[in-house]
Amino acid sequence: MQTNTPKIQEDEIDFGSLGQKFYQIITYPFRLFTSYPKTSISFFIAAIILAMVIKLVIPKAYTSSFIIRPVDRTERFHLKILADLQSLIKYRDYEMLARELKADSNVVRKLVALQTSNASLKEPTDSINCTEITLVTTDYNQFIPLQAAILNYLEQTPYFLKIKTLQKKEIELQQPEVEKDLKRLDSLKTLQLREHQKQDLSGPGGVLLNDLVNPMTTYNMAIDRMNKKMDLIARSAFEDSFQLIKGCVVMRHPSFPPRILVMCLYFVPFFMLLCFFYLHIKTTRSRKTKSVSP
To answer: Are strands 242-246 and 131-137 parallel, antiparallel or unpaired?
Structure first.
């Protein structure tokens, strides 16, 4: 007697059993956690305690930045000079760092990191050439001293120090000469005005005589000398090779470590993952011992 029983083809998929297995895999961690609630809660509490301990133990770090611009807009050497300071900070050579910056060693030891950013390196068409220097320190009171030490370090570099010395000597030589020229031109203008009023310029040589005694030429020369004087004053005010565009703002809110809630978002999932592996190994071993025992 033959029975008509439905046969499942070998190439067909049993979606019911597949969905059940998938559901078991998804719910397996939750079943482990609920089966061992004390262990799961202990891992959860351990993650929170570790986040609190790290928050309290790790020293706070504060971040601020200042922006400098070289007088020569095509100058890029200062980035390599700052890279030397970054190397000293990386290897924690605070003695050499304090010697280079000519700063107190206690101030330098609070410097955690130094980062530089120059937009003209990524965009060659950018003609501004400003460099942002970011400081990370464990004491927010040291931002201004460190900023001054870094600026002084750049200015005292032999290359930039030589440029500054030459510019200073040039200004010192040109300023007295410009002052003498201005005094002489003032006297000359007075004489020319006096003679211009006395001369009769109606004759045949009047045009030539007018050019000789016309005070307008002297006035133009005086204006040129005055412009040169203003240029020397501006150069004397900007003798340094670098100009401070934006100084450090004293940030009293730490940038690291993050808040406890943020740290818990990292530690709690990690500890729960460790808890899952621990419970999985534990249950696997217990099943093996039960299957082996008579």
So the answer is: unpaired
